[in-house]
């Protein structure tokens, strides 16, 4: 399978894997941004992609940014549908205690392509019974 990538900024690296078997393709900041503690910002990546039908793109945080600065994604994971052809933009948020500066060309997120199932919603009068039933948050823990 191939992922068609349109580079909107020829000077930035193309999405790539640090290691051949890594799941995520690194995405890079198109413009510098400074995030104060508690702030979020939308950061362009300089690329658009054509997600194949039957797949979705998940934009995930980078563990290095989280570990070093407490920076993650405000909407993790971000979802890219197969029909979207615009620039990938990442909403970074600073959960840390210090200002974080992102330079142009810094790795800011990862793109993972996953297969999806597209069920057709069907309205029913009731759902089948299970052992868990309607027990919610924390109900499966001890």
Question: How does the SSE layout of this entry go?
Answer:
Elements: E1 4-7, E2 25-28, E3 33-35, E4 40-50, E5 55-60, H1 63-69, E6 71-73, E7 78-80, E8 87-94, E9 100-102, E10 107-115
Antiparallel strand pairs: 1-4, 2-10, 3-9, 4-8, 5-7, 5-10, 6-8
Quick synopsis:
The chain has 142 residues and is mainly beta.
Strand tally: 10
What's the shape?
Answer: globular
Could you name the ranges where pLDDT drops below 50 across 5 or more consecutive residues? none
Strand content range: 35-45%
Task: Look up the CATH topology.
Answer: Deoxyuridine 5'-Triphosphate Nucleotidohydrolase, Chain A
Distance between the termini: 43 Å
Q: Would you tell me the structural class of the helices and strands?
A: mainly beta
CATH architectural group: Distorted Sandwich
Polypeptide structure, described:
With 142 residues, this protein is mainly beta. The chain has a single domain (4-115), classed as Deoxyuridine 5'-Triphosphate Nucleotidohydrolase, Chain A (Distorted Sandwich), CATH 2.70.40.10. It contains one helix and ten strands. It has one helix spanning 63-69, and strands spanning 4-7, 25-28, 33-35, 40-50, 55-60, 71-73, 78-80, 87-94, 100-102, 107-115. It has a four-stranded antiparallel beta sheet. It is globular, with a radius of gyration of 18 Å. The termini are far apart. The mean pLDDT is 95.
Q: How would you describe this structure in keywords?
A:
Deoxyuridine 5'-Triphosphate Nucleotidohydrolase, Chain A, single chain, four-stranded antiparallel beta sheet, mainly beta, 5% helix
